[in-house]
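Could you help me review a protein record that somebody else here produced? Do not assume that whoever made the record got everything right. The record follows directly below this note.
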Amino acid sequence: MSTLPLRRIACAFATATLILLSAGSPSQAQSVAVMVNGEPITNYDIEQRTKLTLLSTQKAPSRQEVIEDLINEKVKIKEGKKYSVDPGASEVDSAFQNMSSRMRITSDQLVQSLAAKGIRPDTLKSRLKADMVWNAIVRGRFKQSLQVGEKEVDSAAQAAGGDTTTEAFEYQMRPVVLIVPRGAAAGTMEARNKEAAGLRERIQSCDEANNTFKSMQNATIRDTVVKTSADLPPTLRDLLDKTPVGHLTPPEVTRQGVEMVALCSRKPTKVDTPKKREIRDKMFAEKFEAKSKSYLQEIRKAAMIEYRQ
């Protein structure tokens, strides 16, 4: 029997296997779609960013929108290196952790949440890094032009019919906690709530609060925190305004136990009122957005962008 047919069969089988393997190989996903200043954007990058954008906005972006975002990030990163703004892995990881904290989950849980949608954590970290670089550059290079003056705030408030004359206060506070360990008996939280109510009636100064909580078991009093009206959310601001100086705010159940705030002082201040802070922040954001847009257009014109597909 001739070996020629067997060789042909073996050859055909090997060719078919190679075709099947190459059809689903990572190299196809890693094929370059765009080159930006000599750096590639692959189809896999585009696929990953599409998933991330869909997850964060609940809207499916077009392929071109995703490509433009990725090009912008490459350009921003290069501009950052030009000014020695190049966050390291630890800084990016910290930003990733801060994001998970704002979402009230751990970093590991955020990684798992992304993985469930087929998204690698590096995809989000790349976006975070570009944002960090760009914010630092724009704020640093255009600091003077981004400032919002008092006259601008007052004029904007008058044009909007707003009132910026509302009195603002500076609060000095000391957070206190009646600790309830995890896994404690069901009645422990209720007992500590009753204990907190008794302390609220008894304590009438921050010195008294300090002495009381430092001598108690399973309790702690933290260092003084200073905030203005503009720094606080309306609910907490109203609560502090209703609390007599030297007294404790109503108890609140948290993961640590029962928490209150000892109000040490409440003094009028000329620092921004909540309304002025809102206007100032909005005006800064508008200036930042306009400057960011024009700056990005400028550096994109100088970028070498080559579309491969």
Notes: Confidence is low (pLDDT under 50) at residues 1-26.
